[in-house]
Amino acid sequence: MKVIMELGPKKIELRDIEMPEIAADEVLMKVRANGLCQNDVRDYTGDTLWTYPRIGGHEFSGEVVKIGTNVNPKRFQTGDHVVKYILPNCGECYYCKNGRENLCTEIYTSPTFKNENGVSGFRGMSEYLAVKSTDLFKYPKTTDFIEMAFTEPLGCVINSVERAHLKLGQDVLIIGGGVMGLLHVLVAKLQGVRVLVSEPNEHRRHLAQKLGADVVFNPMAGDAVEFVKEETGGSGADVVFNTTANPKIAIDAINFTAAGARRSCLVQCTPMSQLLLI
Ligand SMILES: [Zn+2]
Ligand SMILES: [Zn+2]
Description:
By secondary structure, the protein is an alpha/beta fold. 24% of the residues lie in helices and 24% in strands. The relative contact order is 0.13. Residues 270-278 have low confidence and may be disordered. The structure holds zinc ion (2 copies). It comes from Xylocopilactobacillus apicola.
């Protein structure tokens, strides 16, 4: 089967490797769509701590083409459209036991990240994957494979918004209008809050507005902290979501936040998801 193998910074090759064998509790999943995340870009540029060779891609969807002998046929059949739970968390540590699997203390030593003698990676950029049936989520066949591939980033955003415990009518600031920022707009608006989006790119500001943002602004065009204060009756946002990976913006996120406001969230796509409580 074909895979996109990353051999080192800016060195990728289309390679033929052995088809994966499935165990009794696994299915063979044919990948039908795979999103490119900023983390994939970092793997490509070499701005990464993980080992090469690597098969990237963790935002993927696909189709079940074969089921293992112990997989319950009432749950999964060939032809099912599925996405996969991707974290290689241990299931044993404090975080795993408390529903914070993304903070599992063992994740970064797993072969998905560091595989000194083999291939690392989530492997969405391969034709087929052997997947435990317990890691699969089924979609209706009418859902587009490309839309399904947004499940993982959307899952991160739902986690982020749920942890912020938004209340009806609050002022919420979303920093950044990329994929994660725009998904935050969609999910936050469903909570009945007023959404402000800080984004320098005009096209992204326009998209944020189309998706329901109440106020969009360019943080480079003036004093962004002053602007947010003015827009929020002088107090600042009740909740700030920072969807950028720029550490300087984490400081701004604090300045944007109202006195007495409960929290600010710092979010990237899993497995880097973090929550900054202030
Ligand atoms: Zn991602
Ligand atoms: Zn763990």
